[in-house]
Each structure stands twice: as structure tokens, then as C-alpha cells.
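Sequence only, no structure available. Ideas?
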Amino acid sequence: MKSISKERVGALSDGVIAIAVTILVLELKVPEDHSLSRDDVEHWVLLFLGWVVSFIMIAVMWLENHRQLVLASVWTMPLMIVTFAQLGLISLIPFGSNLIMDQPDSLASAITFNVIMFANGLCAGAGGLVLARDLRMQDEPEVAATLVRRSLLQVLVYASIAVIGLLGAILHHPFLGVILWLSMPLVAWFWLSGAEKSASSRAHGRTAKGNS
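Reply:
I predicted one. C-alpha cells follow.
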């Protein structure tokens, strides 16, 4: 089996991400005691912040996956392998966020959180590079070159945030990394705008070939 229908891939990723988001909501439990102490409120706020970070990151990965669906004509086996790895890492996002919110002063929890987040970004970038290779084989070098540049820059952004987050944890400021990971919607917007330009360029190139 050399290729897989991208509609099936999209349905699979949507299902996995929907389950991950549902698990996120289950972590937000309503306090049973109506007379909440300050510690209880702070704990709930941290859990909610963990939910926000996890939801944003999962949303970004969903957008990234569908960006690749727009550009891919078929889903090759290498791209499928990267996609499965990506979905597995997405399922770990709630765990990483809950861990650092539950143990904010733990260096181990900060390392786990930042490694999970960076691994998601690395896998998304790897997917872009594999897709660029496939596009190059389909005689679309310009779109492939653009995708390579954006994928490498994406990995650099994720790596920078992870390093800063780890340094913050070492310096006893673990939430520095959490705050930076909240900037991911801006990164997603950047990639999506690039995907739209690439898709438009691709469609224009096909039209030009058809008219020639």
C-alpha cells in the first residue's frame, strides 16, 4: 500500500483529537466543598490554566494536520507514520500540562511538559518535510521549497520555546515556558497563512500548466 486516502486520515485525526479534548474537560472537576480555601482556588486556577494550554496546543496541531491535508494529493506511508506519531504525542499533551500544573515547582514536571510540547512541534515539522519531499517528486519544487523553509522555522520556534521554558524551570520560574506556549495561536496563524499562499500558488501553477 503506497498511499492512503487523505479523507480517511482526516477522519482519523479528527477522532483522536476529539477524544483528547474530551479528556481535557474531564480533568476540570467542580469542587465539592462550597467553602473553598485560597489553596483550593489557586489549585483550580492552575488546572484551568493547564486546560487552556493543552487546548491551544491541540488546536494548533489540528490546524497543522489539516494544513498538510490541503497540500497533500495522497497520503504516502512515510507521511502516515509521522501522522501516527503526531497523534500519539497529541494524546500526551493533557498529561504534560496537568503534571506541571499539579507540581509547578518540580524540575522533572517542567522537563516533561516542555519535552512533550517540543516533540509535538518537531513531529509537525517532520510531517512538513516529508510532505515537501512528496511534492518535489510530483514536480512542484516551489511549493516544496516554501514548505521546507516554514517547517524548519517551525521546529526552531518550538525548540526555542522549549529551551526558554527549561531555563525558566531551572531558575525557579516554571510558568515562563507555560506563558510562551500560550503564544502558539500566533504561530498557527503564521503557518496557516503560509499554507493558503502555497495552496494558491499550487492551484495557479496547475491552471497555468492546463492552459499551456
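Residues 3-29+40-195 form one domain.
Hope that gets you unstuck.
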